[in-house]
Amino acid sequence: MNVEKIYKDANALLEGHFLLSSGNHSQFYLQSAKVLEDPKVAETLAKELASQIKKSNLKIDTVCSPALGGVLAGYELARALGVRFIFAERVNKKMTIRRGFEIQKGENILMCEDIITTGGSALEAAKVATEMGANIVGYAALANRGFCKRVGGDTEAKPTCKLPKDLPFFALADFEFDIYEPKNCPLCKDGSEAYKPGSRGN
Ligand code: ZN
What we know:
The protein is an alpha/beta fold. It has a domain at 39-176: Rossmann fold (3-Layer(aba) Sandwich), CATH 3.40.50.2020. It has helices at 3-9, 39-55, 69-81, 120-131, 186-189; strands spanning 13-19, 25-30, 62-66, 84-91, 94-96, 108-116, 135-144, 169-174, 179-180. The strands form 2 sheets. A 6-stranded mixed sheet has the order 5-4-3-6-7-8, with helices on both faces. Strands 1-2-9 form a 3-stranded antiparallel sheet. Helix 2 crosses helix 3. Bound molecules: zinc ion (ZN). Zinc ion (ZN) binds next to helix 5.
């Protein structure tokens, strides 16, 4: 499966000269929700991710995602795995699991995001699930931003990766690209101007 092509076709992977919310510049930008806009594409990606996960023989009772970004990916993954789905959400900045979702003691839960950057939100949601009795068996995402090491991937984990090293992390592809401080940006040196993603119709 050519995941990069699927992202590009969905305008989820943009190429240009972007001004990121951090103030840094980049040649690429992942608009990860765009790839899930078409439910058929979402289903295809989730089935592929599920087939990788099934090969690991992990026992999974439930998929859990941090809202909002992870919900669509997690729901589709749960469907492909044939298991239950729940989500965690922030209330006054604190991650919580509510809405009547229950977790049995020792319930095997796979955490799922649409994209894992350093994995901070997924880890926070996992901590809440663990406090409620969950046994976290691993992490999954459609895309890996290149800070964590995915099962079968070539990219090594960076020190900023927050995911536990003793649990598997499944993802379909690594989207690793450079981020530049404005003063060191080669795209600026070439004379173009950085713009905010979305400000030019994409
Ligand atoms: Zn620049």
